[in-house]
Amino acid sequence: MSATAVPEKREKVASGKHAPDGVPPRSSGADPRRRATRRRRLIALVFLLPALLLLGALVAYPILFTVGRSLFDASGTRFVGAENYTEMFRDPATLTAIRNSAIWVVVAPALLTGLGLILAVLTEKIRWATAFKLLMFMPMAISFLAAGIIFRVVYEQDPERGVLNAVAVGVHDSFHEGAAFPNARAREGVGPQQDGPGLKGRADGSYRTAQDLGPGQTVNLPLVGVPPKELPKEAEPARAAAAAKAGGDELRGVVYVDFTPGGGGKPGRVDPAESGLPGMTVEAVRDGKVTAKATTAADGSYRFTGLKAGSYAVQLPAANFAEPYQGIAWLGPALVTPAIIGAYLWIWTGFSMVLIGAGLAALPRDVLEAARMDGASEGQIFRRITVPLLAPVLTVVFVTLVINVMKVFDLVYIIAPGPVQQEANVLAMQMWLVSFGGGNNQGLGSALGVLLLLLVVPAMAFNIRRFRRSQS
């Protein structure tokens, strides 16, 4: 081989055109590809950097700061370790908040998922499905503050203001007649010149004549406290009925308003302008037992006939003066948490229905039609086909709602009245009350925040894993 051939061979080997046996040629494009990959990663990092900074400033740093702050006392100067965590489990208010939060987690997501499923299935059967979904979803556009104010009025105890109690009172009064004159009371101690023997109040709220009477007597019973505007239209003057004489075995009289409009009447006397009180129950009592009952007419008159000889007391039972039915104490200690959960259902049912409806729309229709052709009923299709196929969607909706109810605060704070707010307390509100609502103990409040985070994280992790599994 000539001397000029050796450099030429070396040049070919160096350029990669001719490599020795067993040695792969070096790729001239490897370095540019690596540089392009690094450049793309660097550009992606530059674009992600603002989001990462915001995430760190608004999420990561507050979490770390809260964990650290929970290890210090209320002033934030003395390290107390896990003392705040042990203290919150000794505090009765925190235990009540944990109990109520557990009720929320168990009840609200289950009811919302069930309602959403039922409404989503039924919506497919109606003609105006889109309008119905829009109507159900509208509460989601209302802030929790506005929704809380709305339901605070809805649950109002006064039937004149609260919608639910107005309905409850209307239904109750349709089946149970209330007291005719709840504000009436007997005129007592009017002197010896009165037409009747006078009335005395009793411990059970009834009124009874001060002395016993016998058949053949007239007993007029004066009442006050009934404004003229509250008298029924059928009420008539009691003067004529009061002047009527009783028969031999008869005990009679009138129940009247002992008040003359414009003045001029005499207490204890049935004056010409004084009205009788219709619809009052009057009882004849002998030896402590009621022997006869009567109801007053339009002029307030009543009469007992066929009485046996002896002494009787005339009584106006307490039912005549009972307070009218005022409805249900929705915001009382016993019902305040279910009432607030009801407001939450009103807001979030549309959300649940729309999400489940989207999953329902993606179901394979050929499976449902095949089941119908095989003779399956709609109930069987719902239980054995629709629900199993919707199980992933139902799980996501349920877990999302669990995360949401763990953080509920607005509705509880606004709807629950001050005296029963502790009965409706939840963890998020307890955290705020301890930290800023008068407790001024941000160490204990931070511990409650960490507890709330630890309770929410497993549900969030489960939801994220479900999303990743559905995408794979």
What best-fitting shape do the alpha-carbon axes yield?
elongated
Instruction: State which percent range the strand residues make up.
Output: 5-15%
**What string gives the helices and strands in order?**
HHHHHHHEEEEHEEEEEHHHHHHH
What ranges have pLDDT less than 50 throughout 5 or more consecutive residues?
A: 1-7, 9-17
Number of helices, counting only DSSP H or I runs of 4 residues or more: 15
Distance between the termini: 63 Å
The gyration radius over C-alpha positions equals: 41 Å
Largest sheet: 5 strands, antiparallel
What does this molecule look like?
The chain has 472 residues and is α+β, with helices and mostly antiparallel strands. It is 50% helix and 8% strand. The chain contains 15 helices and 9 strands. The chain has a 5-stranded antiparallel sheet, with no helix packed on it. A 4-stranded mixed sheet has the order 1-4-5-8, with no helix packed on it. Strand 2 and strand 3 (207-209) form a beta hairpin. The protein is elongated, with a radius of gyration of 41 Å.
What is the secondary structure topology, with strand pairs?
Layout: H1 5-15, H2 30-69, H3 83-88, H4 92-123, H5 129-137, H6 144-154, H7 163-175, E1 185-186, E2 199-201, E3 207-209, E4 221-224, H8 239-243, E5 251-257, E6 281-286, E7 289-295, E8 301-304, E9 313-316, H9 336-361, H10 365-373, H11 378-389, H12 391-406, H13 410-415, H14 427-435, H15 442-471
Parallel strand pairs: 4-5
Antiparallel strand pairs: 1-4, 2-3, 3-9, 5-8, 6-7, 6-9
Helix pairs in contact: 2-15, 4-9, 4-12, 4-14, 5-9, 10-11, 12-15, 14-15
